[in-house]
Amino acid sequence: MAASRLALPTHLTPLTPAGEITVGEPGTYRLVLDTTAPPICTVRLTVPDILLQIISNQTAGSGEAPTLFLTVDHQAPRTKAEVLAKSLVRGTGSPTFKGLLRIAESATGCESYLRHDTLLLGDQARVHSWPALEILNNEVKCSHSATVRTIRDEDLAYIRSRGLTRKQAEEQIITSFFA
């Protein structure tokens, strides 16, 4: 997993995936979204001093097109959130990820980060990624990014020089992608 942009404690209270989640008590929270999560998820941070980390790992095989629409809605001041989303796409898979960080006009002093990384396996693999920001005040720190990459021959050659087969090298790259 990519290094966190927020200073996270070692224990975060887990949240249960649902279509609508309202966090109404100060604290530190983690939400993990996988293939069983609802395709549309909105998390509302309604009181100050909430720190939230969301991790999403999405896979799409040939012919599959899973969708995840995720919104983090900062409704209170001094809330912090980090979204780390990853998509692995094989064959003719074509997932969609839409992530929105929304900061209300009254939510000053917020920090929020959204990152979506995709690893494409196959010439016909595709991804649709839309990270977005909706910021209604100027006293915040927010950013978003999206990256798309493939496994290059150079990546495989380097790992294979350590005695691994091509398949083992690919699996090593996939494992490190989700780490």
Question: What would you note in describing this structure?
Answer:
With 179 residues, the protein is mainly β. The chain has one domain. 12% of the residues lie in helices and 50% in strands. A 6-stranded parallel sheet has the order 1-3-5-7-9-11, with helices on one face. It has a 5-stranded parallel sheet with strand order 2-4-6-8-10, with no helix packed on it. Helix 1 crosses helix 2. The chain is elongated.
Number of helices: 2
* Helix-residue proportion: 10-25%
Note the beta-strand portion: over 45%
- The count of β-strands is 11
Sequence of strands across the biggest β-sheet: 1-3-5-7-9-11
Give the distance, in angstroms, between the N- and C-terminal Cα atoms: 5 Å
What does the average pLDDT come to?
93
Output the structural class. Answer: mainly beta
Order of helices and strands: EEEEEEEEEEEHH
Radius of gyration: 18 Å
Largest sheet: 6 strands, parallel
**What number of domains?**
1
Poorly predicted residue ranges: none
Shape: elongated
Please name the defining characteristics of this protein:
single chain, mainly beta, 6-stranded parallel beta sheet, 179 residues, elongated, 5-stranded parallel beta sheet
List the SSEs and their pairings.
Elements: E1 13-15, E2 20-23, E3 27-33, E4 40-45, E5 50-60, E6 67-74, E7 80-90, E8 96-103, E9 110-121, E10 128-135, E11 140-150, H1 153-160, H2 166-178
Parallel strand pairs: 1-3, 2-4, 3-5, 4-6, 5-7, 6-8, 7-9, 8-10, 9-11
